[in-house]
Amino acid sequence: MRYTPYYLMNDPAEVARLVRENPWATWTSPATKGLVASHYPTLLDEEATAASGELVLLTHFGRPDERSHELGKHEVLVIVQGPHGYISPSWYPDPSDMVPTWNHVTAHLWGVPEILSDDENFEVLGQLVDQFEQHVAAPRSLQLDETSARHIATGTVGVRLRVTRFDARAKLSQNRTAEERERITAELRGEGHYAHPGLAAEMERLA
Description:
The chain has seven helices and ten strands. It is an alpha+beta fold. Strands 1-10-7-6-2-3 form a six-stranded antiparallel sheet.
């Protein structure tokens, strides 16, 4: 990502929040046959992160995707994309302003994946299901039929990634005046084509 000092996110706790709130991540690998990208739900390993002070990610790959990525043989890049959206210059008070932009919150995280055992993988799959099912009226669990769930789990590979470095940005109109930022936030919370309450909330957090 372009280096712009006042957009940098240096706080690991903020990057951890971004992962928690935006669990659909892109995993990319420089495999022998070329770049490979896959998309998987990704959790923060809260216990390992708290114990080590490092960001630790958990996910699973569907077979044979793990072979395409050559998991464990090299560093991978995980991209976590938070709220993002178009910012129209028509939202600025100066009528001569004509340059639009795109606000976003994004993190790039690097590390070498660790392949989990079958039992660890099943535990991660259970965590993933429970994490998302908790928000529905009648949540389901892998424990409803563990035997069948374990059979299905053989088609997946569990992965743990200890993040060795990250590069994160919160580009949220920090270069604009307080009045302009208020107008942008109001438009994002409005009913127009580019309304985006989630992006407005990120701007309000920064303020």
